[in-house]
Amino acid sequence: MAKEPAPKLPASTRRSPCPVACSLDIVGDRWTLLIIRDLLLGRSRFKEFSASPEGIPTNILSERLVRLRRSRIIEQIPADDGSKRRAYQLTEKGEALRPLLEALRDWGLTWEKGTRAALTPIPRRRASTAQ
Amino acid sequence: MAKEPAPKLPASTRRSPCPVACSLDIVGDRWTLLIIRDLLLGRSRFKEFSASPEGIPTNILSERLVRLRRSRIIEQIPADDGSKRRAYQLTEKGEALRPLLEALRDWGLTWEKGTRAALTPIPRRRASTAQ
DNA sequence: TTCATTACTTGCATTTTGCAACCATTATTA
DNA sequence: TAATAATGGTTGCAAAATGCAAGTAATGAA
């Protein structure tokens, strides 16, 4: 990871106690929610996030994954392909962002011409269900 | 306004046709949705946005207001205090962001300790209802 | 053991942010 | 009416974040 982005985001560094502002402190940038989107779509590996059409730079992706793990929105699990590599998956806290992503999707579909649905409801996967 | 931020945000400058990515191109930063929050709470003047506890810098606020008008999310109307000054209000497209803000609020309230509700449902105001 | 892939890190140029100061109108007051 | 204050911004600049290309360490495959 490139640079330490503050130890744990303690409540004292928040801009205000407003839950909207607080949520934006955590997921309010151009890339973080795209990673969440990919996870909701079933993607789980660094390479898969990197391959998404928006083309997130690898240094940004790497830093965001660290930040998301610190915020307990994602966790690392053993990859289900038998290799030693690890995969990412949403925690319960991360899964709870689904309505937010759906709201973003619905607004975009309704008000911006030329967008096409990408975030369809997919079956939830739960931790330790390595299937 | 400080610097022209691209004429109209034509579809061709989008990172992808994904409606989530497209929405984030428009409202995906740390400040824009706080302005929308304030508008949903009934605030309508530059000074009121500026006075919110998160303390948005005035140059950022100014640039975001221009951008939001370009995206037809807000519009300027005559202030309802009889003065020559103008106020901002949400368009229908902007009001349609309400579920998104509610999702942000709910997630913050549930998962981040120490946040307090700020975005409560308030009666809608419609354009040209200068009351 | 060599090569390819994955999952990153590093360096650097460009862009955005944040802060403080300043300025032009509009409104208030004396 | 003149002076003063408040509103709604700009401007300049330092610091931080972003984006791109290139490099690297640790697997995994042949």
Written overview of the protein:
Two copies of one chain form a homodimer. Chain A is mainly alpha-helical and 131 residues long. Chain A has a single domain, classed as Winged helix-like DNA-binding domain superfamily/Winged helix DNA-binding domain (Arc Repressor Mutant, subunit A). Chain A is 42% helix and 8% strand. Chain A contains six helices and two strands; from the N terminus they run H-H-H-H-E-E-H-H. Chain A has helices spanning 19-27, 32-40, 46-51, 58-70, 92-95, 98-111, and strands at 74-78, 86-90. Chain A has a two-stranded antiparallel sheet with strand order 1-2. In chain A, a hairpin with a 7-residue loop joins strand 1 (74-78) and strand 2. The longest helix of chain A is centred in the last third of the chain and has 14 residues, at 98-111. Chain A is globular, with a radius of gyration of 15 Å. At the A-B interface, helix 1, helix 2 and helix 6 of A face helix 1, helix 2 and helix 6 of B. The structure holds a DNA duplex (30 and 30 nucleotides).
